[in-house]
Amino acid sequence: MKTSFKISSALLTGFVAAAVAAPAAQAQNAPVVNAPVSTNMVLAPQAQAMAAPRAPASDDCGLFKTCSSTKIGLGKGDFIVRLSALGVIPEDRDSKLWLNGSAIPGHVKTTNQVMPELTFEYFFTDNISIDLIAASTRHEVAAKGTPLGNIDVGSAWALPPTITLAWHFRPHKRFNPYVGVGATLAWFHNVSPAGGLVQKLNVGVTGGPSVNVGFDYQLVGNWFFNMDAKQMFLRMHAWANDRGSGAFIKAHDSLDPTVVGAGIEYRF
User: Fold this and answer.
1) Which of 17, 80, 81, 240 is most buried by a 10 A CB count?
2) Alpha-carbon distance 225 to 219, whole Å?
3) pTM for this model (two decimals)
């Protein structure tokens, strides 16, 4: 009886060891399978916001704003339109008067005037531009200190279109000073005699060189402030009344107006 118990215990121990070893062996000998992992997972709202592509920032800066695409300063290819307040100051440097063909003492005096001015400017290069100014100003003309006293001659509108080539020292900078040279052709319209001693009045077309100096300053976006001073060299020729009338007056006057303007301009 003792012997059979020992055998039975040994058999039981063997069965237990075999039962434990079998699953481990199956796990070691099982084939490895690489199953695909699904990417269609639902993300949390915060994760979705971080993963979503961002739209590019808008660069719509408006008409009166400076944005990243705005060019700084002026340069090649820029076209400018400027509206200025213009002051015209005739210098009347040298006057000569004749009465019925004889020289008489006295001098011509022309009044100052302020009017709006329109300017168009184009940049051929970063440094060189050409501009055309258009303005018309009305002036009163008188003969002072003559043997006949002070004579009111009349009034006339002057239209002096001026073309200028300018050199700009600091292209593509907010502050850009310049100097220029050009030419002026002036003619006079709506000429009105003063009456009394002067019953008829004619003023001839004239022209001459001009020089100028000024600067542009970029305010915001494509808007600029401009300050400009021109010196024109013009000589006016005028005739009052008819020959043989008894009071035929002829005058030559070096107008040589100084023209100062300040205004706002826009770049296209």
Assistant:
1) 240
2) 7
3) 0.72
